[in-house]
Every structure is written in structure tokens, then in C-alpha cells.
Amino acid sequence: AALDIGRDLGSALVTARNFEHEHRLVEELKTLADYKSRLVATVSHELRTPLTSIVGYLEILDGDDGLSEHSRKAVAAIQRGSTRLSRVVEDLLVLHRLADGWIGTTGPVDLAPIVAATVDLNLGPAGRRGIAVDSELPTAGATVLGTAHDLEHVVANLVGNAVKYARDGGRVQIVLELTRDEVVLRCTDDGIGIAPEDQDQVFEEFYRSPDPEAASRQGTGLGLAIVRRVVDQLGGRIELESALGVGSTFRVHLPVAGS
Ligand code: ADP
């Protein structure tokens, strides 16, 4: 019996040491995560101010009739670059805010006009690649609790991705539906699709599929991370169905306001 007690004490000691070790590791990871988050927030804030002045001065240059053809092209290229940079900075700030918990007061937001406006904005880029965009929206009742700004991000990312990853000459379908207690946004494309092993990871920050077809499209890998965080915060869920070379369907379910 004495031997048993000794053995038990020994293994309890090992367990306690392991526990202490794990506890220390968890603390270290927390500190690192906190550091990463502060770094991202500080850098994004610091980039935002000079970017605003770059964009402002570019607008002045753009309106200058005296520019040579060469300078005009240079201004256009800088404008494209700074627009892209502004988008990344904005996405990083949104992601940081969402990671810190919900900030801002939620209220009833009608998704239908947001979806309609987003589809309109995407018609130009879609048309240039011969992609047909169909949309079906309910006339009333697609109201959820949230903030318009964050819901706009969700819709813009999903509709934008459907067009971006569709095949040239293909078709994108955006449907907003009501069930008894949910508002469902369905975005379907007939594009490159997502391999089964990538389907969970696409919602991670900065994850971009290694597929060369996907990599050839511009992106930061932040869009779906934002979508998932907003949807989680609002008590909804997101589903993905996809097959490589066939296309993808993203479905966002959000509780209908007042249900
Ligand atoms: P981004 O499009 O900026 O790379 P996202 O977070 O929106 O970032 O998407 C992450 C990755 O998921 C993309 O890089 C792409 O590989 C994949 N993906 C997202 N939407 C689609 C889609 N509709 N069809 C195929 N792949 C997609």
C-alpha cells in the first residue's frame, strides 16, 4: 500500500508540474496574442493618418489639367495602390475592434437595401468579365439586429468574393430570404471553388487558398474573418458548400429582429 501511495503522490506531482507548465504556456500565449493585437492596432492607426493625406493630395493632383500623360498615369497608379492600402488598414481596424468585443450600439437594420446597393456596386466589375449577377430580395422584413456599418462589411465581402472568384462569363446569384425566425443571405458563384481541406481555414485571418487560381486574384485574406466575427457576434451562423472547379455557396443566417 505504501508503494501505491508513493506512486500516486509521484504521479500527482508530475500532473501538478505539467499543469503549472501548461498554465505558464497559456499565460505566455495570452501575452503574445495581446501584443499582436496591440501591434496591429497601433500600426493601422499610424498608417491611417498619412494615408488620408496621400489620398487628399492625390485628389488635388487628379484635378490638375496641366499634368503630362506620363504624370497622369503615375497618379492613377498611386491612387490604385493607396485605395488598396486604405482597404487593408480599414479591414485590420475592423477586425481588431471585433476581436475586442462588440463596440457600438446595435439596432434594427434592414438588409435588403444594403444587399441591393452592394449588388449595384459589383455590376461594373462583374460586367467587365462577362459575369451575370442575379439577385432576389424580399420587399420587407429582412431586418436584423446589428450595426449597419458591420453588416455592410459582411455583405460587401460575400458579394465581392462571389464576383471575384466566379469564372469569366459565369453567373453569380445573390438571394436574401426570410424563414420564420431567420434572415438568410445566400451568395452563389460558379467559380473556382474551395477544396474540402481549405473550407474551415478560409475563415481564419490572413488565410488565402494556396490554389494558384485563387492566388491570382487580389486579396488580403481578411474578408471572411470579418464576416465570421460579425456573424458570431450577432448570434448567427455561416455555412459553406463548395466543390473545386464547380463553385461555392456561402449562407449567412441571422436571427430576424424581434423574434
Ligand atoms: P481574400 O478574398 O481577400 O483573399 P477572404 O477572407 O475573403 O480573403 O477569403 C479567404 C480565401 O477564401 C480567399 O483567398 C480564397 O482562397 C477563398 N475564397 C473566398 N471566397 C471564395 C469564393 N467565393 N470562391 C472560391 N474561393 C473563395
UniProtKB/TrEMBL annotation:
<protein>
    <recommendedName>
        <fullName>histidine kinase</fullName>
    </recommendedName>
</protein>
<feature type="domain" description="Histidine kinase">
    <location>
        <begin position="42"/>
        <end position="258"/>
    </location>
</feature>
